[in-house]
Amino acid sequence: xxxxxxxxxxxxxxxxxxxxxxxxxxxxxxxxxxxxxxxxxxxxxxxxxxxxxxxxxxxxxxxxxxxxxxxxxxxxxxxxxxxxxxxxxxxxxxxxxxxxxxxxxxxxxxxxxxxxxxxxxxxxxxxxxxxxxxxxxxxxxxxx
Length: 144
What we know:
- A hairpin with a 3-residue loop joins strand 4 and strand 5 (about 120-130).
- This protein has a six-stranded antiparallel beta sheet with strand order 1-2-4-5-6-3, covered by helices on one side.
- The protein has one domain (about 5-140): Thiol Ester Dehydrase, Chain A, CATH 3.10.129.
- By secondary structure, the chain is an alpha+beta fold.
- Helix content is about 20%, strand content about 40%.
- The chain has helices at about 5-10, 60-80; strands at about 25-30, 35-40, 85-95, 105-115, 120-130, 130-140.
- The longest helix is centred in the middle third of the chain and has 19 residues, at about 60-80.
């Protein structure tokens, strides 16, 4: 059972098609500052049409953006700032471990590693099944 479905997510994030990269949030643990979100990938995703036409692969930068969107939901919930925008500011230690292709479900697990009043750093991991697809440290800031 989802904690948040796509309609809840649309009410929380400013992203819209084709840049909405989260379909469902399965778990939010505010106390431990962790979240689990999903993106179901179909051949109809716009990026698959050009990356690559003969071997469709989800671009790594899109995997990072999907993790960032899940992180934005977590940060807004932890900081009780629903509707605010957590601006993506930096990426560190990004690694890509396997291809993500049409038909895959990308499970993103994000955990806050550092929190300040207007900035936060999270550790994100994306899996296909039990296999690690990508990971990175992501930094966010809130506007005034």
